[in-house]
UniProtKB/TrEMBL annotation:
It comes from the Bacteria. InterPro entries: Aromatic_Lyase (IPR001106), Fumarase/histidase_N (IPR024083), HutH (IPR005921), L-Aspartase-like (IPR008948), Phe/His_NH3-lyase_AS (IPR022313). Pfam families: Lyase_aromatic. GO terms for molecular function: histidine ammonia-lyase activity. Its EC number is 4.3.1.3. This is Histidine ammonia-lyase. It is found in: Cytoplasm.
Length: 519
């Protein structure tokens, strides 16, 4: 995933909404969290209302009743602490591979954010303990399967709640798995003792899927710039034309993402001696570039606009208090459906679709470099000695394999639903699953773009003439780690180096240092 250096060192969590960059700072860069004192006051105020209802003989869901299909049972006061602990233990039922640390830290921050809205009815100590665990670098062990994306990301959140109780397992700052009891003791954190409503408030939210959405939006916005850099390099490497990217042509179809993509391509490829020398040849022999080159702004623009829509949805969700039941502003404690993950699940799936398509067009551009019928005078497969050498033949196979997987990942998870809890929870969002597959799609897209840049750089090094300053900056960044064209070498490490330059932002930073900030 992409690294960002300008991240806040401390994120304040309060009644207002977090920003996407706050989530990334805590999840990915280890920023500390602080709770706004006003949030503590709000938490304490609504807790008073919960305690009033706890002493009332009238059953109130989540406070003095069972859960889900068992909501009709009234729980006596002496069993309510056990009710909350039993809820957490029973719902910590995940299975499969361990989920990445950054996802769990994002999930935890977002659960803390909902607690700090003062709408969940927990005591201040619950939020304070959550913040302390985050700041101590304690990350609960959470497993791949267990959330249906409705009634919250139940199993993932329950595993996190279990660690707050000093149960289950965790890692401390990426170290070995240790018992949560030991990690809390080493950090000087007292295990949480749950009271009415608190177990439910710790597990009932869309925090996992929203965390994955925030991380994906950050990475995909960067990938959009990388795609434009790769396109500019390919246009230049194939001796194509920049005229199709002219601003007035984009204005004829005024999608904002399209205009931004075309402007980036023009900026990165501007001043190319290779393209300048090929103008007359292009007019007489080529006339038009293929769709994968000519229509790049339309595809990358649609990608950008979809990411922008996802960012709008994420912003709304970051401003939400997702819990059930919730303490409303008038003091009533009432059931609701805000835990349903549909709005988040939909955009997670939308992003998987556009990630697959952006990768697909990148792979098609790469393939043009390898075919002598289409690469405009370059060696077959960009090999040093075709036949003896295979050049980048199998790098394109790697791209193709990834693109094929991304197309499978584009099948929407949110179109599925499996009833659960004895048909009480009879429609679910599958938003967690949408987030999990999107993470693989983001990674795959970054790898496909990295191969296109690696291949385009090799092609440009094989051309006569000076490259554009922008494309030259990308090549120079690559050449610090990967040598130029020669006889065949062990290719996997070179692909890995290019992937790293995509993921850590080096390509974008190198190009922007020369041409200015890309859109």
């Amino acid at each position: 995933m992409t690294a960002h250096s300008a991240s806040p060192s401390t994120v304040t969590v309060g009644i207002g909404a977090l920003r996407i960059e706050d989530v990334v700072a805590v999840a990915r860069h280890g920023a500390q969290v602080a709770i706004d004192p006003e949030a503590i006051e709000a938490i304490a105020a609504t807790r008073t209302r919960v305690e009033e209802l706890a002493s009332d003989p009238t059953p109130v869901y989540g406070i003095s009743t069972g859960f889900g299909a068992l909501a009709r049972r009234h729980i006596p006061e002496d069993l309510r602490a056990q009710l909350q602990v039993s809820l957490v233990r029973s719902h910590a039922a995940g299975s499969g591979t361990e989920v990445e640390e950054e996802v769990i830290r994002a999930l935890m921050l977002l659960r803390l954010s909902t607690l700090c809205t003062g709408r969940t009815g927990v005591r201040p100590v619950v939020a304070e303990t959550y913040a302390a665990v985050l700041n101590a670098g304690i990350t609960p062990v959470v497993y791949e399967y267990g959330s249906l994306g409705c009634s919250g990301d139940l199993a993932p959140l329950a595993h996190c709640a279990l660690t707050l109780l000093g149960e289950g397992e965790c890692r401390v700052r990426g170290g070995a798995i240790v018992p949560s009891e030991q990690a809390l003791a080493d950090a000087g954190i007292a295990p949480l003792v749950l009271r009415e409503k608190e177990g439910l408030a710790l597990i009932n939210g869309t925090d996992g899927m929203l965390g994955m959405l925030c991380l994906a939006i950050t990475d995909l916005k960067d990938a959009a710039k990388v795609a434009d850099i790769a396109t500019a390099m390919t246009v230049e490497g194939l001796k194509g034309t920049l005229t199709v990217f002219d601003a007035d042509l984009q204005e004829l179809r005024p999608h904002p993402g399209q205009a931004d993509a075309a402007a980036n391509i023009r900026a990165v490829a501007a001043g190319s001696q290779i393209l300048d020398a090929a103008v007359e040849e292009f007019k007489s022999k080529q006339v038009q570039d293929a769709y994968s080159v000519r229509c790049a702004p339309q595809v990358a623009g649609g990608f950008r606009d979809t990411v922008a829509h996802a960012e709008l949805v994420a912003g709304r969700e970051l401003a939400s208090a997702v819990d059930n039941p919730v303490v409303a502003k008038d003091g009533r404690v009432t059931s609701n459906g805000n835990f349903h993950g549909a709005p988040v699940a939909y955009v997670l799936d939308f992003l998987a679709v556009v990630a697959a398509d952006l990768a697909s067009i990148s792979e098609r551009r790469t393939d043009r470099f390898l075919d002598t019928a289409r690469n405009r005078g370059l060696n077959a497969f960009l090999a040093d000695d075709p036949g003896v050498d295979s050049g980048h033949m199998i790098a394109q196979y790697t791209q193709a394999g990834i693109v094929s997987e991304l197309k499978r990942n584009a099948m929407p998870a949110s179109a599925d639903s499996i009833p659960s809890s004895a048909m009480q929870e009879d429609h679910v969002s599958m938003g967690w699953a949408a987030g999990r597959k999107l993470r693989r799609s983001v990674d795959g897209l970054q790898r496909v773009l990295a191969v296109e840049i690696l291949t385009a750089a090799r092609a440009l090094d094989m051309r006569e003439g000076e490259t554009a300053p922008g494309t030259g900056a990308a090549i120079a960044a690559l050449r610090q780690r990967v040598a130029g064209p020669a006889t065949d070498r062990f290719l996997a490490p070179e692909i890995a180096d290019s992937v790293a330059l995509v993921q850590d932002g080096t390509y974008v930073a190198a190009v922007e240092a020369v041409v200015g900030t890309l859109r």
